[in-house]
Design goal:
Strand content: 5-15%
Helix content: 40-55%
Number of domains: 2
């Protein structure tokens, strides 16, 4: 299996030690967390404004390590990054027309993690709409159209995308009508992603090779986060507090997309430490007892940033 990163024994040892500590502190079982970690060495190939061609970029593999990085897990709102890339591909190819409304929806989908905005984006990508149940024939056509997003990503032939599913809208209360039929009686057609797959997508965005250099920069700008000066109001989330970004040192440049439900709490971040070292970290946690815990992911990120400082080679 060819991954986009080169598995590194030193990083793997450090990651295993970090995860041993995190699982012990928060009573996580071995199957309640999955992580992919990439550490970039000089000369850095990310956040260059697209200085490298796609061919050159993909030949330069960074060091990485993972734990359960190939496990297919419900991604919650992290899937919105894939819809963001797909939308820019559609726009680049002229498959959908540019408009202020699609720009507004993409911004709200990533910056605020709006499910309503995501619904519009998925409709525009697939040419489908939500609504009442459909007769078998039209429903079959509808399903085929909705799967265009899967077909696009499979056409990239990334090893990391094996078995993933990217055809469902995110919901607040859940799907109804044709959407409920589409997800399956036992939700067997839910979205599925791995931390390795998410890491490769963010790697391509940060590297300036997702669709185009200019579009990659536009996408990365939407992912930029600032650590808030005060915690959010009770019941609200800001995609930093309680997620990986909250555990990184002050002055870190942070780009991320979080996702959570009553069953999962995930985050995917590209970050540059104050000393300039870039990292990529994707962490999925599962379990009702852990999804509300705002300390697990910050603790993981803090330990990873410490490990980065230890393992960073001299430029």
């Amino acid at each position: 299996m060819t991954l986009f990163f080169t598995p590194d024994p030193a990083l793997q040892t450090a990651l295993d030690q970090v995860l041993d500590q995190v699982r012990a502190e928060f009573a996580l079982t071995p199957t309640q967390i999955a992580v992919t970690w990439v550490l970039y060495d000089p000369p850095y190939i990310t956040n260059t404004g697209g200085a490298l061609s796609a061919t050159d970029f993909w030949q330069r593999q960074p060091r990485g390590a993972s734990y359960r990085g190939v496990e297919l897990i419900y991604p919650a709102s992290v899937v919105k990054l894939f819809y963001l890339v797909a939308a820019h591909e559609w726009l680049e190819q002229g498959m959908i027309p540019p408009s202020a409304e699609i720009d507004r929806a993409l911004k709200d989908m990533i910056v605020d993690s709006s499910n309503d905005a995501t619904s519009l984006v998925v409709d525009m990508l697939s040419g489908t709409t939500s609504g009442p149940e459909l007769p078998p024939g039209p429903f079959e056509t509808w399903c085929h159209q909705r799967n265009i997003i899967n077909r696009f990503f499979q056409s990239l032939q990334w090893t990391e995308l094996t078995g993933v599913n990217l055809n469902q809208k995110p919901w607040g209360d859940g799907p109804y009508g044709r959407e409920r039929a589409f997800v399956g009686e036992h939700y067997e057609n839910r979205n599925r992603l791995t931390t390795n797959a998410v890491a490769r997508l963010i790697h391509s965005i940060a590297g300036g090779v997702a669709v185009s250099a200019a579009r990659s920069q536009t996408m990365l700008n939407l992912m930029q986060r600032l650590v808030p000066s005060a915690p959010p109001e009770p019941g609200e989330e800001d995609q930093v507090t309680g997620f990986l970004g909250a555990g990184l040192p002050p002055g870190t440049a942070l780009y991320s997309k979080a996702g959570y439900t009553s069953q999962v709490r995930h985050d995917a971040v590209y970050f540059e430490l104050p000393n300039g070292t870039p990292d990529l970290l994707v962490a999925f946690t599962e379990g009702r007892e852990h999804s509300k815990n705002r300390d697990i992911l910050p603790r993981l990120a803090g330990l990873i940033s410490q490990a980065t400082t230890r393992l960073k080679p001299s430029a």
